[in-house]
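User: I need a structural model of LLM class flavin-dependent oxidoreductase from Demequina zhanjiangensis for a docking pre-check later this week. Nothing fancy, just the predicted structure tokens so I can convert them on my end. Input:
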Amino acid sequence: MSLDNPFEIGIFTFGELTRDADGRPIAPATRLKDLLEWARVADQAGLDVFGVGEHHREDFAVSSPQMVLAAAAAQTEQIRLTSTVTVLSSSDPVRIHEDFATLDQLSGGRAEITAGRGAYTESFPLFGQELERYDEYFEDRLDLLLAIRDQESVTWEGSTRAPLRGAGVWPRPFQEKLPVWLAVGGTPASVVRAGVLGLPLYLAILGEPARFAPFVELYQRAAAQAGREPNRVGVTSHFYVEKTSQGARDTFYPHYSSYIAQNMPRAGRLDHAGFEAWASPQGALFAGSPAEIVDKILWEHEVLGHTRFLAQVGLGGLGQAQTLRSIELLATEVLPEVRSALSAARVA
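Assistant: Understood. Predicted structure tokens for LLM class flavin-dependent oxidoreductase:
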């Protein structure tokens, strides 16, 4: 994050295959083509980050973020390219670092890794792993990933894979080191881990944003106790913007309710009252006019002090034209206003 860009805004997707407006499942090839266009438009419009998440289910198009990000790298020039997330528990850190270092070379230093444990467990049987060792796999493999990031010659031993003795992991990235963020869904132990390791932290805001403030405080306290400077905090949120608040909500509600029914069934049926509550000024959902989105980002920044906002776009089979327009408005009407307001606040 440069001094010219004190607050970063970007977009991300899991490539979900929710049924489209005609009730047909979106084909994986269509969804992948769509999201590469999202990356191009976001880059051209001036957004800072494009992210793709990893799932191993039939209702998602992306199982390998690094493959999709490599395609995006060839079609973009400035935007940073990140996984959101890489399911490190069921991945080989050697392979992950090699892939993202290659992406970094291809993109001229724009790659990042966001490591997480993942919200689903399908990858464990796929890769022959024991689900009861879920936490052990993540801790062990994060340790190895960071060792590879920091050393060209790696000597490491853990409990979930073969040891390395003076191993070289190539290529090295274009950047001095690959940025590694840690994604957290609200588990205190994960927040503490990020602070102790000095890693930048993503919070997935799926409830009231204000309830995540104690996690930021815990993160900062854990970093200080470990003798580290607290790193950056980013937040991710579901998102849709139109010129008018009512237009945004009328358009988005049926798509978003379908998305929630498919991907968050424990939340129950999302009726209009629930949707409006989530989209309220202090709710978790960013759906409204550009002015409303600006106000909400600024309020959330006051509460959490984050310096990166990632908007999850294209949810629930939303049309391509509507998604692209939402991305453009985020870049042209939301981002400049947020930066201007925060710059003015610093001067004051």
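Before docking, keep this in mind: The chain has a mean pLDDT of 94.
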